[in-house]
Design goal:
With 281 residues, the chain is α/β, with parallel strands linked by helices. Helices cover 36% and strands 20% of the residues.
Length: 281
């Protein structure tokens, strides 16, 4: 399948690009910056999308302040909404008009941030965003679902934090601070390997249209405390600093992934974390 992919040069998009390519898809990267070895079409959120010849769209592109998703609007909330909500809706409409067969949108667990800590986040739970980031993702989800119909299948993928090896992986700063003996704040959160996210996207691209219908799908894997993460780092590297206190895991709201698992999706779990950490050092 010829797949148009937005956000291919980003920290998450690189996993999607690789995962789609290894599964035999022909990927066309839409974005400002070319990605080496991949067909590229210049595009930015809000512009007319160059989708000719493509059969499906995976929308992972997002405009935000560097290093921030929640709070990614910085001092320009109007521009943030115009790019990410309105620009995404124009892209979805263009995909349907161009005759693409399906669109997968990378949403976020942030659509559920307003639920009490420790809530079981089932896929039919009504969203309750409390940040502009979550509100924009939820609005884009609704707009995409409204376009679904015969011949145009849609799915939104609500992903948790994405980790994995790479030159700018998400824990680079944390690991450096730990090695330098800095005080590390306690934290526990859900995590998902980027390759498992790519596997989920690939499943949604080939799933029967009736399985999408349109729906949102949760994507999450392990519940990880920083203390456990850094203990693993110390074992791999043979060095480390003071470990943080353990955080309260009972306050984490965990995404249930019943719909993806029903399609055969199986993320790699804690063993996959250990393998990824060995690649980071």
């Amino acid at each position: 399948m010829k797949v148009a992919l937005t956000g291919a040069s980003g920290l998450v998009g690189r996993f999607l690009l690789r995962g789609l390519a290894v599964r035999g898809h022909e990927v066309v990267a839409l974005g400002r910056r070319p990605v080496e070895g991949v067909a590229h079409r210049p595009w930015a959120l809000g512009e007319a999308a160059p989708l000719s010849g493509c059969e499906a769209l995976v929308h992972a592109g997002f405009s935000h302040v560097a290093g921030r998703y929640r709070g990614g609007e910085g001092d320009n909330p109007e521009g943030f909404v115009a790019a990410n909500r309105d620009g995404s809706l124009r892209l979805f409409e263009a995909a349907r008009s161009a005759g693409l067969s399906r669109t997968v949108f990378l949403s976020s667990r942030a659509v559920h941030d307003g639920h009490p800590p420790g809530t079981d986040l089932a896929e039919d739970l009504p969203p309750r965003p409390v940040t502009l980031y979550g509100e924009v993702k939820w609005a884009a989800e609704q707009g995409l679902a409204a376009l679904a119909g015969p011949g145009f299948a849609t799915a939104s993928l609500r992903a948790t934090g994405i980790y994995g090896p790479g030159p700018d992986h998400k824990w680079r700063g944390l690991f450096a601070a730990y090695a330098a003996g800095e005080t590390i704040a306690p934290r526990v959160a859900t995590e998902l390997h980027g390759d498992d996210l790519a596997a989920a996207v690939a499943l949604l691209l080939k799933a029967p249209e009736t399985a999408l219908a349109p729906r949102s799908f949760n994507a999450s894997d392990i519940l990880l405390d920083r203390r456990d993460l850094l203990e693993r780092v110390a074992r791999i590297t043979g060095r480390g600093g003071t470990l943080p206190e353990r955080a309260d895991a009972a306050r984490v709201s965990v995404l249930r992934c019943d719909r993806l698992r029903g399609l055969g999706w199986r993320p790699r779990g804690i063993e996959g974390l250990d393998a990824a950490l060995r690649e980071m050092f």
